[in-house]
Amino acid sequence: MKRLSVLGSTGSIGTQTLEVVRAYPEDFKVVVLAAGSNVDKMEEQVREFHPKLVCMWSEKAAADLKNRIADTGISVVPGMDGLLQAATFEQADVVLTAVVGMIGIQPTIAAIEAGKEIALANKETLVTAGHIIMPLAAAKKVPILPVDSEHSAIFQSLQGSKREEIKKILLTASGGPFRGKTRKDLEHMTVQDALNHPNWSMGRKITIDSASLVNKGLEVMEAKWLFGVERKDIEVVVHPQSILHSAVMYRDGAVIGQMGVPDMKLPIQYALFYPDRNPMEGNDMDLFQVGSMTFEKPDIQTFRGLQLAYDALDAGGSMPTVFNAANEMAVAMFLDQQIRFLQIPEIIEASMEQHKVIENPDLGKILETEQATYDFIKGKTW
Ligand code: NDP
Ligand code: MG
Q: Which residues line ligand 1 (CB under 6 A)?
């Protein structure tokens, strides 16, 4: 029986994690749930899973939830302090981190320091603090198990191999809802258009990131840290059917990949049960139904987000933090209809241009860089 702390339990990955728990009640026990402000959903989850500790980021939501679940006697804690308690809760063995955005960094570091196994969905954490997280996890002998579908596929394809046998990583991308569109087409795309992902149903932020290809840029950085490879050894391959979830090419030219129906419960379950595999209801793939799979090069002229991610990776140090923070703010502004779709890469680029790289930033410098990026964006009219 593994005891889980689920950070971001009310979101897309969080709720699917709880579906896995529901399917395997003998194998998992939820001891902590944490989320931002969705009190209705959290109350439902608390009544079903009976955790020992609950965190709501918002003070107001925490107070509201506390009243609503007063009959249960379960503690509710707010804010970053609450999130850190959730990440380090004594009785948890595994912390599944599925909060959205850079808010995930500090709880992840705290969880590793407390010796928890990490199932990592929150990619922004590795993008901005991979140079802190990976050595810390190695020092603490804590596994970081990828939940992001591509990274799970790569991880699965690496089982039983030796580091020196790897030639390159083939990171697949669906291309999102705007694949094949020109810059002119993109000028008029609305929030609704961008939220309309062809293959995956995910949270709003990552869905916009998929439309802009920023998500793939973040995933290249995530892969660099998770698998210790360089950017030149990672090739992004557009594969619109989302059946091959990524692959590894070995030095003899063999390509080993993981295929399956697009369902996040598989990578979640693989991370939670690793190294075992267990049955998953309704997840069999019918190759006859799939029929054909196609592959193309990404259009990085039209989708500037991916090129900017490469530039941020090449610049290194604090630049990926600027890339990520600028994107987080730009996506929030786009969702709020304050800017147009093509202004997302424009804001990222302007933020990167005005930043002077800090080499090997510690946590304090990463958070300062995040804030400075927000201040820069807020100080201009877009
Ligand atoms: P959602 O927006 O669906 O969910 C985000 C979760 O984080 C919610 O539970 C939300 O709570 C919580 N949250 C937000 N802010 C805070 C905060 N300040 N403190 C505590 N909790 C907070 O996102 P997704 O599930 O789609 O994505 C989560 C992460 O996983 C992202 O980093 C994403 O890139 C990554 N990912 C997601 C995939 C997917 O299929 N969805 C695939 C691969 C990676 P509330 O609802 O209460 O506000
Ligand atoms: Mg992914």
A: 8-14, 34-38, 57, 83, 98-100, 103, 121-124, 148, 200, 202-206, 264
Do 201 and 291 lie in one domain? The reply is yes
Residue 199: what pLDDT?
Answer: 87
Ranges of beta strands (E only) in the chain are 2-7, 28-35, 53-56, 75-78, 94-97, 117-120, 144-146, 166-173, 234-238, 244-250, 255-259
Last residue of a domain, one of 146, 165, 197: 146
* Calpha distance 30→128 (Å, rounded): 28
pLDDT digit string (tens) for 54-68? 999 999 999 999 999
Final residue belonging to a domain, choices 146, 166, 181: 146
- Flag whether 325 is in a domain: yes
What is the best residue among 64, 100, 261 to mutate for testing ligand 1's pocket, by most ligand atoms within 8 Å of CB? 100
CB contact set of 67 (below 8 Å; sequence gap of 6+) = none
Q: How far apart are CA 291 and CA 99, in angstroms?
A: 36
Distance 150 CA to ligand 2 centre (A): 5
Residues 257-309: pLDDT tens digits?
999 999 999 999 999 999 999 999 888 999 999 999 999 999 999 999 999 99
Instruction: For ligand 1, atom 40, name the residue with the nearest CA.
Output: 202
pLDDT tens-digit series, residues 177-187: 999 999 999 99
CB neighbours of residue 235 within 10 Å: 16
